Every structure is written in structure tokens, then in C-alpha cells.
Amino acid sequence: MRILLVEDDPSLAASAVDGLRAQGFDVDHVGTGAAALEAAAAPDLPDVVLLDLGLPDIDGQEVCRRIRSTSDLPVIVVSARGDEADRVIALELGADDYLTKPYGMRELAARIRAVMRRAAAPAPAAQPAPAAAAAVQEIGRLAIDRRTQRVHVDGEEVSLTAKEFDVLAYLAEDPGAVRRRTEILEHVWDGHWYGATKTVDAHVAAIRKKLGDPAWVEAVRGVGFRLGSP
Ligand code: CA
């Protein structure tokens, strides 16, 4: 397994390289965002990118966004800025995980392996040739196509991000049933974003806005959310 370590602090980088090698990983180290983007676009891609947010040239968030715009390369954001806002931003930029400095090498290795397992998991589709129409779920004026990940309201396409789609599709699995924030996190984010339940609220807010009516996703106070039917 090859790790691309993006870290501008030489002593932190040296100890991370040593620690990761001791855990059995191959490690390439770069110290700038530009070098990270170059390595993430090279023909021999790393298996996982460990990305420091505070970089001297390009902000780590921007690096993450650019990597994600061109590939599904797993990205673990590593930052000294441990607040929830940063976690949420990293997640919205498409990072696969988030780790706060200082971290233990064993925790890091476990997170890397978890991210790798998820990246290697086969796509869940593989059903025996379902008719395209069967993949479309209609709930009143809302149509959700899980095969193409498209959503329409009154026949008008609504452009959702991948995670917004996943949240909506999860709520639509059982329209009217209440899902707790932690259930949504676990289902959509693999239960991996400990504590960042505000992320769910942020995504729900975006979904409501894009669907054009807040009643599509009802908040159940103190519990969670359910799909509504305005
Ligand atoms: Ca740094």
C-alpha cells in the first residue's frame, strides 16, 4: 500500500514517514500542495493521500477539492485545526476521513486501512439487469433515480451533490420513517465522522433549498429527519 504524505513540517513529516513505514506502508512525501496535485495526477497513483490542511502554497482544502474533482483517490485530511467546522468542510470537499493532530500512528494506520477497505469494496449494484425504470422511485412530485443518481421535482432536474443524494435516497428508503442523525451519518458516511452530526443538518438544509420546499425533509425535534411530502 502506497501512501502520499503531504506535510510541510519537516519534523512531523519525518516522524510520520518513519511511523507509517514501521506499520508496513510505502510512503512518498511531498511538502507542498502543488507537488501533491502533481503526485495525485501521476500515472502511478498512490493508494491513499494523507493531506495536511496548512500548506505553504495552496491551502489543503483547495488541494482536496482539486483532487476530488478529477479522481476518487482516497483522501484523509490531517489537521491541527480540530474544530467541527473544519471537519464539515473537509467532508463537503469529499475527503474520506479527518484526523486531528497530534494523532497516534496506530490510529492513523487503522484509519488508512478502513479507508482502503471502503475504496476496495465492490459497488453495491450488480443486480440482475434491472429495467432502468425500476430504479426510479417516485414519491409524489419527487422522483429519485438511484441508478443515475438523478433527482427530479415536477419533472425538473435538481442538481444534488453525491452526499446530498445519498442522504435523500436514504430517507426515501422508508418515506415517513424518522432517521436519527447518527443513523444518517453511519449510512451515508460509513459511521466514520464521529461527532460531526451538524454535517447532516448542513446537507439537509442544502437538500431542502434545492428541492424548493423545506417540507420535503421534516425535522423531528430531538430525533432526526424524515422524508416529507409537501
Ligand atoms: Ca502544515
Describe the structure in brief.
The protein is an alpha/beta fold. It contains eight helices and twelve strands. The chain folds into two domains: 2-120, Response regulator (Rossmann fold), CATH 3.40.50; 131-227, Winged helix-like DNA-binding domain superfamily/Winged helix DNA-binding domain (Arc Repressor Mutant, subunit A).
Backbone shape: elongated
Structural class: alpha/beta
* Record field, number of beta strands: 12
Helix % is 25-40%
Instruction: Please report the distance between the alpha carbons of the first and last residues.
Output: 49 Å
Order of helices and strands: EHEHEHEHEHEEEEHEHHEE
Tell me the radius of gyration: 19 Å
- Write out the strand line-up for the largest beta sheet, numbering strands in chain order: 2-1-3-4-5
pLDDT averaged over residues: 86
Any guess at the CATH architecture of the largest domain? Answer: 3-Layer(aba) Sandwich
Low-pLDDT stretches? 126-133
Q: Describe the biggest sheet?
A: 5 strands, parallel
Task: Let me know the CATH homologous superfamily of the largest domain.
Answer: Response regulator
Highest-level CATH class of the largest domain: Alpha Beta
Individual helix count: 8
Account of the 3D structure:
The chain is an alpha/beta fold and 230 residues long. It has two domains: 2-120, 3-Layer(aba) Sandwich (Rossmann fold); 131-227, Arc Repressor Mutant, subunit A. It is built from eight helices and twelve strands. The chain has helices at residues 10-22, 33-40, 60-70, 84-92, 105-120, 162-172, 181-189, 198-211; strands at 2-6, 26-30, 48-52, 75-79, 97-100, 136-139, 142-145, 150-153, 156-158, 179-180, 217-220, 224-227. Strands 2-1-3-4-5 form a five-stranded parallel sheet, sandwiched between helices. Strand 7 and strand 8 form a beta hairpin. The model is unreliable at 126-133 (pLDDT under 50). Calcium ion is lined by residues 8-9, 52, 54-55.
